Amino acid sequence: MTIDWFPFWLSLRVAAIATAVAFAGALWIAYLLANRDFRGKNALDAAVTLPLILPPTVLAYYLLVLIGAASPIGRLWEALTGSPLLFTWKAAVLAALLHALPLLVKSARAALESVDRNYERAARSLGASEWTLFWRVTFPIARRSIFAATALAFARALGDFGVTLMVAGNIPGRTQTVAVAIYDAVESGAGATARILVVVVSVVALAILWLANRLTPEAGPRS
Amino acid sequence: MLQARLKKTFTPGSESGRFALDLEFTASQGVTVLFGSSGSGKTLTLDAVAGFVKPDEGRILLDDQILYDAASGVHLPPQQRNCGYVFQNYALFPHMTLRENLEFAAERRPRLERHRRVNEMLEHFRLNDAAGRRPHEVSGGQRQRCSIARALIGGPKMLLLDEPATGLDAPLRAEFYEILRQAQADFKTPMLLVTHDLAECFELAEEMLVLRDGRVIQKGPPRHILDEPANIEVARLLGAFNLLEAEIRTLDPGRDISRLQAGEFELQGPYFPGHLKGDRVTLCVRPEQLKVAARMGKPEVNQIPGDLQRVVERPHGLRLEFTSPAFAGAAIRVNVSRSEYERQRENKEWLIEFPSGALRVV
Q: 3-class SS at B285?
């Protein structure tokens, strides 16, 4: 029996890209939520959190409407790249992103807010710009928590099933991620393939959890 | 020199009542202390100077630079204020070594000068051995020195210190005062320091501002304030006085004499300007100014009988706590030396002596 490893590698690639994009976006949103007061702050917070609690089908429906061939985004994408966005592995990235982002925003905001304000005040009084202060003081102090959250977000992105199936489809060799492949294998009676993929995914998830726990800062001596 | 006139009002919140900061002061060479209990607005004042808090009204001038001016809408960010700030817990960046903490602070200086300056400061504050270690790996004294070095390295025009010695044990506290005095002597940077510790004012301050409810209620050298508290609020805040009710019976400016009635007893003091015959006043006497004696026959002038309630051990001597019919049961504290107490401990009846020259009324 030969196992097609394509879904596994595709999932890793999708999750990695989605996590990278989510990381940049989440850090920026978390910074705004933690440091700035602006109109619509609560609305932004709610909108970012929503994917955590909405059913996958509802999320997928929104995505279909948002990036479908008839939508402005879908048309723009097609004009730029010459091919539709729906039912490609890039749509799977969007699906994974939707799940990684809220996890990261929540954790990153909590991590940034947990940094003692006096460190930031000290940096300001020493003449550091807000940019310097964020990258040299706040972020390094909070980074272990943020990296731990990033690992979890990656694991979550790796395992998405519902939204991916609806927006990227189940095209073997093109959009079939590992979660979808397992579903497919079970449905078609390929028990051995399903078992192996299940074990591999579980091991990867466990490894990521272990890493996340290692990164989570212990309550230790702090100046 | 720092000149500040500040007003800021906080509307009552769920956890706090209304608070209004409304004060004006100057701080020039040496150490100026903002003294007050918690909630008096002293840290708020410091933060307004540093630029962490924006006042509603007023003007802050540091030398010839306007830091804040409500009228012209100037509110410089902390980055541009040239103020070093020493935090209560020092706020040394925990992920950087001591050297990196100093380098971070020196970044606005030219690159070549930066390195030399960091080395100079490490040397000056005896941090060479600890330079490569992080704040949680060094001693409390090294953390203190590093925080002061970090605040001074950029050459600030003023150093702001927020209760830097609070929570330190006695040896570290003494060490800290020594470092600050040394830094003051070497760098000549004027310092504005917040504290609620009277002893600290005496250790460090040339000038002291007593704050209460967002206002300056007295200013002057610590010695002067302790000798002449301006009013009963200051006297209460300093916590160093017996405050006892009495009534003025006679006032004689010509002979510099006054007579005070306390219960059925009479005390003779100096003339009290600004008071009238018949005024109810509060006598304000420090425990170390009072004396005790054994009662033999009729009390002399300025001696009143006291009932010894308690003897409290102090680091230097003892404190005797009396009540007296002259003051309707109010506690009267008298500090005596150990030898003095040993000499008098068998007293059957006690007299408390109020030296005429020590009497102050507020």
A: strand
DSSP-derived letter for residue A129 is: -
What b/e readout covers B309-333, taking b as 16+ CB neighbours within 10 angstroms?
eeeeeeeeebbbbbbbebbeeeebb
The yes-or-no verdict on residue B167 having pLDDT over 90 is no
Q: Are strands B291-294 and B257-262 parallel, antiparallel or unpaired?
A: unpaired
- Mark yes or no for CB contact B104/A125 under 8 Å: no
| pLDDT for residue A220 | 46
Closest-approach residue (CA) in chain B for A132: B104
Tell me if A123 and B104 make a contact (CB, 8 A cut-off).
yes
Rounded to whole angstroms, the Cα distance separating B145 from A207 reads 44
- Return the structure tokens found at B4: 């500040």
Mutate to test the interface with B, among A126, A146, A222 (most CBs of B within 10 A): A126
pLDDT band at B33 (very low <50, low <70, confident <90, very high): very high
List CB contacts of B143: < 8 A, sequence separation 6 or more.
A223, B90, B92, B135
Q: Would the CB atoms of B87 and A223 count as touching at under 8 Å?
A: no
Residues in chain B: 362
Please name the helix (run of DSSP H) or strand (run of DSSP E) that holds residue B21, with its range, or none.
strand B19-27
Instruction: List pLDDT tens digits, range B306-321.
Output: 999 999 999 889 999 9
Instruction: Count A/B contacts: CB-CB distance under 8 Å.
Output: 72
Helix (H, G, I), strand (E, B) or coil at B68: strand
Cβ–Cβ < 8 Å for B14, B6: no
> What is the spatial distance between Cα A7 and Cα A15, in angstroms, rounded to a whole number?
12
pLDDT digits (tens, 9 = 90+) for B5-25: 999 998 887 777 789 999 999
pLDDT of residue A219 exceeding 60, the answer is no
Q: Which strands make up the sheet holding B242-252, listed edge to edge?
A: B265-269, B257-262, B242-252, B280-285
Residue A127 and residue B79: Cβ atoms within 8 Å? yes
Nearest CA in chain A to B160: A125
CB contact under 8 A, A118 and B104: no
SS3 B30: coil
- pLDDT band for A218, please (50, 70, 90 cuts): low
pLDDT at A215 over 90: no
Q: What pLDDT, on a 0 to 100 scale, did the predictor assign at position B20?
A: 92
Residue with tokens 């209004």: B20
Asked if B83 is an interface residue toward chain A (Cβ–Cβ < 8 A), one would say: yes
pLDDT over threshold 50, residue A176: yes
ipTM computed for the complex: 0.85
Q: Which residue of A has its CA nearest to B156?
A: A126
Closest CA to A35 of A108, A90, A88, A93: A108
Burial (Cβ within 10 Å: 0-12, 13-18, ≥19) of residue B165: buried
As a whole number of angstroms, the distance between CA B52 and CA B169 comes to 29
pLDDT for A12: 95
Contact B81 A125 (CB under 8 A): yes
- Residue of chain A minimizing CA distance to B83: A125
3-class DSSP state for residue B94? coil
Mean pLDDT calculated for residue range A38-51: 93
